[in-house]
């Protein structure tokens, strides 16, 4: 039995040799694996993945943003990190569909979906820990199969059913290299951003969700 709090499987028989399996995961605060990192000088070593006493309970979001504070010469950058455990999907599976859904949430006084905020979703190629990742130790990314999303059309926009099939296929084929993805602005220029609920958000319906359909021959 999987360890995740909200997972279910549906099997549809296509023919006598193959079947389409549907895998849905929407982990809670215990099993979720997400964080955000901030280049702001006082926060470069602060972890925003889980509660730690100095992050002001801001572990309930996944953010990507660039902002220029008054009196500063250069802007500060925020990037989000997200990983799903795909170990319940056989390594031999052919991914038929993989859809990621992210749900809007902004803490009071923080930036909503705003500005020239086209998003880039890139596969991470190094390991990281939800409890210790910071700007200064952030993992490297790959441009291979990078996903690009258009700018938001509203300040409270959800990003539903994002097609990340190619990224998930690589993670399933090479489970030892499943380090998740980085969510960042495509063009990291000031006064732009997106923000989503993390798996630590009090509303479980807003937790990041991944739906995967796959075939095993």
Question: What can you tell me about this protein's structure?
Answer:
- A hairpin with an 8-residue loop joins strand 4 and strand 5 (76-83).
- The strands form 2 sheets. Strands 3, 4, 5, 7, 8, 10 and 11 form a 7-stranded antiparallel beta sheet that branches.
- The chain has 217 residues and is mainly β.
- It has one domain (32-92, 102-208).
- It has one helix at 165-173, and strands at 7-13, 19-25, 33-38, 61-67, 76-83, 94-102, 119-124, 141-149, 159-163, 181-185, 192-197, 209-215.
- The protein is built from 1 helix and 12 strands; from the N terminus they run βββββββββαβββ.
- The radius of gyration is 17 Å and the shape is globular.
State the main characteristics.
12 strands; mainly beta; 4% helix
List the helices and strands and how they pair.
Elements: E1 7-13, E2 19-25, E3 33-38, E4 61-67, E5 76-83, E6 94-102, E7 119-124, E8 141-149, E9 159-163, H1 165-173, E10 181-185, E11 192-197, E12 209-215
Antiparallel strand pairs: 1-2, 2-12, 3-5, 4-5, 4-11, 5-10, 6-9, 6-12, 7-8, 7-10
